[in-house]
């Protein structure tokens, strides 16, 4: 069993509120728009990190992290990208991949809107953790945490940080 902290759209911002939850996780996953290497380095000093780059990320972050990340953990197939869309409205680049090789869990960021939706057509759980940073139109900073264990995703929690 692994406890996962899922965040996105930090836009160079990391604070003690985020780090409190980083310390409680087994792994941290970041769905892009990291913003700075300081965010990455701070998280990596505490816990293992899996991440993708987003549209605002510079060449240094793009050198360290891919556009798309696919892996299996605890028998759960995962696909993370920054700009992915939602069930019935996936980005064109993503739609074919999800249709031909659907993961159990599809994660994206970008919208700054927290959403968890089950795609009944493709049998995919879609997660967008919203935005953990302070840049953007969102009013409340958000993240998700959950557990993966033997092919199951459970104990999903929405984490709301202070209003920005």
Outline:
This protein has 164 residues and is of the alpha/beta class.
Please give the structural blueprint.
Elements: E1 2-7, H1 16-24, E2 27-30, H2 37-44, E3 49-51, H3 59-64, E4 68-73, E5 76-81, E6 85-86, E7 89-90, H4 92-100, E8 105-107, E9 114-119, E10 124-129, E11 140-149, E12 152-163
Strand fraction equals: 35-45%
First and last CA, distance: 33 Å
Q: Please write the string of helix (H) and strand (E) elements.
A: EHEHEHEEEEHEEEEE
Number of strands: 12
Largest sheet, in brief, is: 5 strands, mixed
Rounded Rg: 14 Å
Class of secondary structure makeup: alpha/beta
Tertiary shape: globular
Poorly predicted regions: none
Q: How many DSSP helices?
A: 4
What is the helix content?
10-25%
**On the 0-100 scale, what is the average pLDDT?**
96
- Spatially, the strands of the biggest sheet line up as 3-2-1-11-12
- What would you call the quaternary organization? single chain
Describe this structure in words.
- It is a single chain.
- The chain is α/β, with parallel strands linked by helices and 164 residues long.
- The chain contains four helices and twelve strands; from the N terminus they run E-H-E-H-E-H-E-E-E-E-H-E-E-E-E-E.
- The strands form three sheets. The protein has a five-stranded mixed sheet, with helices on one face. Strands 4-5-8-10-9 form a five-stranded mixed sheet, with no helix packed on it.
């Amino acid at each position: 069993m692994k406890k996962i902290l899922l965040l996105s759209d930090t836009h160079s911002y990391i604070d003690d509120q985020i780090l409190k939850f980083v310390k409680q996780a087994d792994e941290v996953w970041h769905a892009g728009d990291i913003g700075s290497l300081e965010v990455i380095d701070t998280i990596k000093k505490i816990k293992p990190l899996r991440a993708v780059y987003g549209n605002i990320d510079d060449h240094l972050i793009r050198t360290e992290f891919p556009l798309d990340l696919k892996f299996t953990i605890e028998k759960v197939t995962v696909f993370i990208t920054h700009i992915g869309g939602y069930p019935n409205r996936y980005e064109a680049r993503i739609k074919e991949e999800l249709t031909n090789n659907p993961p159990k869990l599809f994660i994206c960021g970008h919208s700054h809107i927290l959403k968890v939706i089950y795609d009944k057509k493709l049998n995919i759980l879609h997660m967008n953790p919203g935005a953990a940073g302070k840049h953007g139109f969102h009013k409340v900073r958000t993240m998700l945490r959950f557990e993966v264990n033997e092919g199951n995703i459970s104990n999903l929690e929405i984490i709301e940080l202070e209003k920005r």
